Amino acid sequence: MAHDEPIAAIATAVLSKRFNHLVALDRVTLTVAQGTIFGLLGPNGAGKSTAIKILTTLLDASDGLARVAGFDVAKDPVEVRRRIGYVPQLLSADGALTAIENLNLSARLYGLRGKTRAARVRDALAFAGLEDLGDRLVRTYSGGMIRRLEIAQATLHVPEVLFLDEPTIGLDPVARRTVWDKLLELRQRNGMAILITTHDMEEAEVLCDELGILHQGRLVVTGKPEELKAGVGPAATLEDVFAHYSGAVLESGGNYREIRESRSAMRRLG
Ligand SMILES: Nc1ncnc2c1ncn2[C@@H]1O[C@H](COP(=O)(O)OP(=O)(O)OP(=O)(O)O)[C@@H](O)[C@H]1O
Questions:
Q1: Per the count of CB atoms within 10 A, which of 149, 225, 244, 259 is most buried?
Q2: Which domains can be identified in the chain, with CATH numbers?
């Protein structure tokens, strides 16, 4: 490998995870370049969340290697954590606090202080489009506003790689599009690499530069949306690609169990 080759945002080699006898991730080898928005697709139980948890240092792999922003997740987890942001599947903002309080809390956790902290919180509030609502309790926000706040919280320290687990599940089409715009803005402004999991084929097509399909823990294909479609057939849609590689057909709107879970989390906040 040439010395001046840029460090990959994410690089895994034969990464595996077993839960007792269940193989949740099976020898996954993947590279995501800096500045790429990568969409990880796959039916329920395919291993998407497990992959994100290993890459964000929340879970140990059973075998194989994973490097994020150039650091080994097993050997240098603290260095990895400094360089990543993570928006989990269930809501993470605190509904009993205001947006400004939530942002200040995250900023403290990232070790930001004084004027830098105040400036970052101000910028983050503007980024989330919540300047006029920063003093309101988050439980009064819509789902889209909460998601924008969570993305702002997860990027206060300007990470090199941002992970989002089903970022737009349960959002209406307008709110969903606003979240896409925010992610595109982060990529454009900071060259951030972004890895999302999704069941939403429109999201995969419109937002993602590259896709990977996980099926029973195995990464069965990766490529740009256009390449994947062309590989399946002349008039193939991404739904066809998904069905071809995973044998699964998506119900419209994605997975219902998850939508129910995210809605019940929103109810808890409200
Ligand atoms: N802590 C755990 N203990 C045992 N099994 C687990 C654990 N976490 C995940 N699994 C199993 O590992 C497999 C992969 O789960 P994972 O949550 O990564 O899938 P996913 O692709 O994210 O699915 P979904 O789309 O439903 O979120 C599933 O069979 C799941 O039941």
A1: 149
A2: 10-269 (3.40.50.300)
- The answer, yes or no, to whether residue 210 has pLDDT greater than 50, is yes
Cα–Cα dist 168/80, whole Å:
25
Go through 144-172 and write b for each residue having 16 or more CB atoms within 10 A of its CB, e for each that does not.
bbbbbbbbbbbbbbebbbbbbbbbbbbbe
CB 198 within 8 A of CB 39: yes
Closest CA to 214 of 236, 255, 239, 245: 245
Does the beta carbon of 24 lie inside 6 Å of ligand 1? Answer: yes
- Contact by Cβ (8 Å): 203, 180: yes
Give yes or no for residue 215 CB within 6 A of ligand 1. Answer: no
* 187 ligand 1 Cβ < 6 A: no
122 Cα to the center of ligand 1, angstroms: 37
Check residue 85 and report its DSSP letter: E
- The CA-CA-CA angle for residues 46, 48, 50, to 5°, reads 100
Q: What is the pLDDT of residues 225-239, one digit of tens each?
A: 999 999 999 999 999
**Strands, sheet with 10-19, edge to edge from the N-terminal-most edge strand:** 22-32, 10-19, 63-68, 71-72
Q: How far apart are CA 175 and CA 262, in angstroms?
A: 15
| Rounded CA separation 37/54 (Å) | 19
Q: Is 78 in the pocket of ligand 1 (CB under 6 A)?
A: no
pTM of the predicted model as reported, rounded to 2 decimal places: 0.90
